Amino acid sequence: MGFFELNHITNVFGISGLLQVISLFGLLLLLSKAAQYYLHRQWLLKCLEQFPSTPSHWLFGNLIKDQDLQQTLLWVEKFPTTCSKWFWGNNPSVMIYDPDYMKLILGRSDPKPIKSYGFFVPWIGYGLLLLEGKKWFQHRRMLTPAFHYDILKPYVGIMADSVHVMLDKWEQLAGQDSPLEICQHVSLMTMETIMKCAFSYQGSVQLNDCGNFRSYVEAVEELTHRVHSRARTAFHQSNIIYNLSSSGRAFHRACRVAHEHTDRMISMRKAELENEGELEKVKKKRRLDFLDILLLAKMQDGKSLSDEDLRAEVDTFMFEGHDTTASGLSWIFYALATHPEHQQRCREEVQSILGDGTAVTWDHLDQMPYTTMCIKEALRLYPPVPAIARELSTPVTFPDGRSLPKGFMVSLSFYGLHHNPRLWPNPEVFDPSRFAPNAARHSHAFLPFSGGARNCIGKQFAMNELKVAVALTLLRFELLSDPTRVPVLVQRSVLKSKNGIYLRLKKLK
Question: With contact defined as beta carbons under 8 Å apart, do 232 and 87 qualify?
Fold first, then answer.
């Protein structure tokens, strides 16, 4: 509306009349939005009428803050295969925890919902976790050789060295006769492993000069918390509002810390590759490490891999390559500490293979059947990534006849799947025999590394690291739980404990 039109209306109606007209337009707009909201909600309810749910508030949904996992267990027990859940307002999803449902969704190529995964973009950009379509396929194909067994074999020694540094530190602390919070120690150890294996880092991550790495680990902890919280807060969906909030400012501060770390790693390796001798040595390798693949692709064809793409893949793998493994290992240690009979049986198996020595090799990793069973059972109880989501690109009909239209969000709850009593009798009981060599189960009943084409690219790397860390730790320590500090599980992008994981360490003679 132009100035002269506004002036004319003012002359005709007067100031008070103009205010009435504006108020009327505002009221009509508000009623229109309310009608749209109501009609959309009715459509959503109709789509979801086949899927059971607990009562939901029209604005606040039916999720209780930081009780996602406890609610999931209740829903899994009450509704055998699936249920609908509401975050806030008109923002529902269908949560599935049935293996046939899982197999169907993971076999499709539905994208990750931008309205939740998009909150990761300022942090990790568009790397393998967030890419879709042709570009995702190109990057996955480019990076897959970094996880060939020829590459993974020599990593076992690097993993063992990193674990020994952590255990040496624990040996100094074990004499203090007080419980040790293990999560940050384990995170620094997995960070050192990924830095040395995938990023050709030569320094120390865990010792006295680890300030920058500790800052990065703390930043990742902050970022996973902020992303989870934002996804569940209606008023933080807008970037403008979120960026002005205290939570948004804290998120971006942590992003800067994370980016400074990854930029430093990229710059260091770039500088090394500018040395002609180092570059020739790398080019002669039969297979390349993760970062070298990216840097050589960038050097040889800058069009196919931009600076932004390079940084996104490094940010993604730096986060996923250490944080998920650290979560899994911390919970495995906790599970063994709370089940001493299984811990002792694992220790005896490891001793029979390694003796009193501490050298562990690639060939040893397949000689630990019972230890592997215990690791898998702990990953069942405590899946490092509790849930993922997909947005349906086409309608879907599930095996039991229920259906959903295009555009709906589906949440795949690995935590619910792993605690589903129809699949796992007495699911809260730690029972490694579930993973005995002759035990039968559905192909999609156990998914600690997801499944389908978009499964975790580093799953073999992670399993090797878990085996090495458990074996070497059990040779040196008895792990004892602290009954006064029972961990409180909380769902983030990675499974965490709200109050840490405290263990007592008893040095073995």
Answer: yes
Of 387, 388, 409, 391, nearest in space to 44 by CA: 409
Lowest average pLDDT, out of 191-195, 204-208, 352-356, goes to: 204-208
Q: Is 412 exposed, middle or buried (0-12, 13-18, 19+ CB in 10 A)?
A: buried
Q: Classify residue 262 by burial, with Cβ atoms within 10 Å: 0-12, 13-18, 19+.
A: buried
Instruction: Give me the amino acid identity at 120.
Output: F
How far apart are the C-alpha atoms of 314 and 170, rounded to whole Å? 30
- Tell me, yes or no, whether 196 lies in a domain: yes
SS3 assignment for 78-99:
HCCCEEEEECCCCCEEEEECCH
CA distance 71 to 61: 13
pLDDT grade for 331, boundaries at 50, 70 and 90 = very high
Q: What is the DSSP letter of 126?
A: S
Q: Is residue 250 part of a domain?
A: yes
Looking at the domain assignment, is residue 20 inside a domain? no
For 324, the token pair is: 């998920």
Encode pLDDT of 300-325 as tens digits.
776 678 889 999 999 999 999 999 99
Domain hosting residue 420, numbered range: 63-507
pTM of the model: 0.93
CB burial readout 345-368, b (16+ within 10 A) else e = bbbebbeeebeeeeebeeebbebb
- Other C-beta atoms lying within 10 Å of the C-beta of residue 9: 14
- Distance CA(198)–CA(21), nearest Å, equals 65
Total count of domains within the chain? 1
Question: Is 399 part of a structural domain of the chain?
Answer: yes
Contacts of 189 (CB under 8 A, 6+ apart): 162, 163, 165, 166, 206, 326, 469
Q: In terms of DSSP bridges, do strands 92-96 and 409-413 run parallel, antiparallel, or are they unpaired? A: parallel
